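User: For my dataset I need records formatted as: sequence, then structure tokens, nothing else. Please produce one.
Assistant:
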Amino acid sequence: MQMFGVDLAALAVTLAIGAVAGALAWAAALPLGFLLGSLVVTAGLAIAGARPFGKPVTLPARFRFSFVPVIGVAIGGAFTPQVLAQMPGWAPSLLAVAAFVPLVMASSFTISRRLGIGRKEALFGAVPGGLIESVTMAEAAGADVRVVMVMQFLRLILTILTVPLIFLVLTGHAVGSASGVSLAGGVPLTARDAALLVLAGAVGVAGARALRLPGWIMTGPLLASAAVHGAGWVQGVPPGWMIAATQVVLGTGLGARFAGIGRDLLLRAGKAALANAAASLAIAFGFATALHGLTGEPVAAVFLAFAPGGLAEMSLIALSLQMSVIYVTAHHVVRIVLAVVVLQGMARRQG
């Protein structure tokens, strides 16, 4: 059975596999278990070309994106007068993002070239954020879009896989619900609160998309949720089971995107992506060590703010740890904007 061009049976099988894998990883107390468990298992099946129960591994991007506003709404609940008072102290690290982005791009470009990646592919694959924009500009410049997409995608995946493990070492606690941290903030949602948050999410998505805000599918609901929480209209945030379900959908969606990628391409671009991710995380840790004293934030929070993963995924880790959520998200929004701006300038010079 299909609906809107989607094989519903294949989608159901893929989600079921992701959910079981995520639940097992969570039960094993692995960092960010629901996300990483579903990601690793579905990615393995997709790369192998497996067809569980006779169905391909698939999860449409639009289905995955439909869950991202949940993260924005949950993060908006962390917006308090105390957070607002701390924002002026974030200026040093927000300004430092302007140095971080070109430094990461330059190092990634150099590494990729030395590993045999073409000049154009190395340029567009070096951007620490803005996956869609990078691929679009790469295609316009005549680069091999497959190489750029795999490099960008693997950089994202490797960062998502590595950061929770780094946090386990830095903090001694697992990232996610396995850590024992309450994702729901301890305030139960009433029916009225739930209705207002759904409305805030919908209005936030529509408004941010119309205004073309960066990361609109998450930043819009975040701002709308922050507004209703700040006004005192809502006290609660999305419950833990909803955050867990969102992790499963995000992880399964990321894993499913490996379907159809040839192993030769995966290995060639994977070497560059692995080296780039390692260099980027090392640079992020250097910035965190230098800046945490100026911002009043712990090293772990500043590191998470600079780690070049996806906006939704890095924010989800911050949400899971209840660690400077607004601070982390704000830096990732700025990083993505600057990455696209720098890429546009470099692309014009290359052209």
